[in-house]
């Protein structure tokens, strides 16, 4: 929710319960604006109205909510074509959960596509950084995101989903939630860097810092309704809340460890590919506390495509061919990674399993290989037309998927 103002806003706010409300007091304003026609395309906000403030030189805006929300309010300075603005971001912390469906669908659909969530940074009233020639970061990121989307969708076994497809604002905390709702296997957030001086240049890749990861793990564990998302059907048969929390915490910790390791490995591949098409400000993935990277169960990276504050890089980013090269480099890295380690249940995983081979080394036996690849000894023998359990060093074996 965004309020357009004639001057920098002076505001205070607080929340109320029974029913849930957000109350915002705006100094040096009046209630002449009609709030009855405020557009609302969701089910979190019931209505927006005025109330009587304590200060007669202020106006009080009341946002009536259908359930509890965590508000964040911040002012934005004028950026053409917008003037002063107050952004009201409502984090729908008790929204109807969909992740249980996500888990079930992932497990029940074999040979599914690998889903890549592509996040174009900033948007709408948030232009991001602005280059010396007036280039908006939000336009550059959306253009590259669309080019990456096209490459992903053209690849058999992959599918792209976008957190935003146009010029509108989405809060950073909302973006990983959208990726989860879309059942993403990876989130790639695209940005352009900036500095107060024009000299810095080059791209970089960012992953979640360990400190922020620990904080997010704690936040998830405090939301007991999210335990069932992690446990799936097991949550329905666990009656001991302490056991449920312990199991959920264990699963969440393992999930976050896997996501962070995947993010770093993939980030390295993105750096390798990007340095073929642009200079790199950082040669290895960097760690930071960034809201868009905080999903504990989805590997996530943030790609800075260059310094828009550098005149030459701003010029490059305005060149469509350069934006295509950047998108191509990200796609190549993502494809390389998932070809090596495709998610379970995907088409690529199925094709990899069908073509698995193993060259026998000293000390290995059929029973050892069957245990390693989680298949039966009889299945390996059948796939290789073997009549005995004897294998030879250097022998090339076909490893079946089951």
UniProtKB/TrEMBL annotation:
CDD domains: LysM (cd00118), MurNAc-LAA (cd02696). SMART domains: Ami_3, LysM. One of its GO terms (molecular function) is N-acetylmuramoyl-L-alanine amidase activity. It comes from the Bacteria. One of its GO terms (biological process) is peptidoglycan catabolic process. Keywords: Cell wall biogenesis/degradation, Hydrolase. Its EC number is 3.5.1.28. Residues 356-399 form the LysM domain. It catalyses: Hydrolyzes the link between N-acetylmuramoyl residues and L-amino acid residues in certain cell-wall glycopeptides. One of its GO terms (cellular component) is outer membrane-bounded periplasmic space. It holds the Pfam family AMIN. Belongs to the N-acetylmuramoyl-L-alanine amidase 3 family. This is N-acetylmuramoyl-L-alanine amidase. The gene is amiB.
């Amino acid at each position: 929710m965004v309020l357009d103002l004639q001057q920098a806003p002076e505001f205070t706010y607080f929340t109320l319960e029974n029913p849930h409300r957000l109350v915002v007091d705006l100094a040096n304003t009046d209630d002449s604006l009609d709030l009855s026609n405020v557009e609302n395309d969701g089910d979190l906000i019931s209505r927006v109205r005025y109330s009587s403030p304590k200060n007669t030189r202020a106006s009080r805006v009341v946002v009536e909510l259908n359930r509890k929300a965590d508000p964040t309010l911040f002012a934005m300075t004028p950026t053409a074509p917008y003037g002063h603005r107050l952004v009201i971001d409502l984090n729908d912390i008790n929204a109807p959960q969909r992740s249980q469906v996500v888990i079930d669908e992932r497990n029940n659909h074999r040979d599914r596509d690998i889903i890549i969530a592509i996040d174009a940074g900033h948007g709408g009233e948030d232009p991001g950084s602005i280059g010396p020639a007036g280039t908006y970061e939000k336009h550059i990121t959306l253009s590259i995101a669309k080019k990456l989307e096209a490459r992903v969708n053209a690849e058999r076994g992959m599918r792209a989903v976008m957190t935003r497809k146009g010029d509108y604002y989405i809060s950073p905390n909302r973006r990983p939630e959208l990726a989860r709702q879309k059942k993403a296997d990876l989130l790639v957030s695209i940005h352009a860097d900036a500095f107060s001086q024009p000299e810095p240049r080059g791209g970089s890749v960012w992953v979640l810092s360990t400190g922020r990861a620990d904080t997010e793990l704690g936040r998830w564990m405090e939301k007991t309704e999210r335990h069932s998302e992690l446990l799936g059907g097991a949550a329905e048969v666990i009656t001991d809340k302490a056991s449920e929390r312990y199991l959920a915490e264990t699963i969440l910790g393992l999930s976050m460890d896997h996501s962070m390791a995947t993010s770093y490995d993939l980030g390295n591949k993105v750096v390798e590919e990007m340095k073929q098409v642009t200079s790199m400000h950082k040669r290895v993935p960097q760690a930071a506390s960034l809201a868009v990277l905080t999903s504990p169960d989805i590997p996530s990276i943030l790609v800075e495509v260059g310094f828009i504050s550098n005149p030459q890089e701003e010029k490059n980013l305005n060149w469509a061919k350069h934006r295509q090269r950047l998108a191509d480099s990200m796609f190549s890295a993502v494809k390389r990674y998932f070809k090596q380690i495709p998610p379970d249940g995907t088409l690529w995983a199925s094709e990899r399993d069908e073509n698995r081979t193993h060259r026998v080394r000293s000390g290995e036996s059929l029973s050892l290989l069957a245990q390693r690849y989680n298949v039966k000894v009889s299945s390996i023998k059948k796939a290789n037309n073997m009549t005995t359990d004897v294998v030879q060093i250097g022998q090339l074996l076909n490893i079946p998927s089951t």
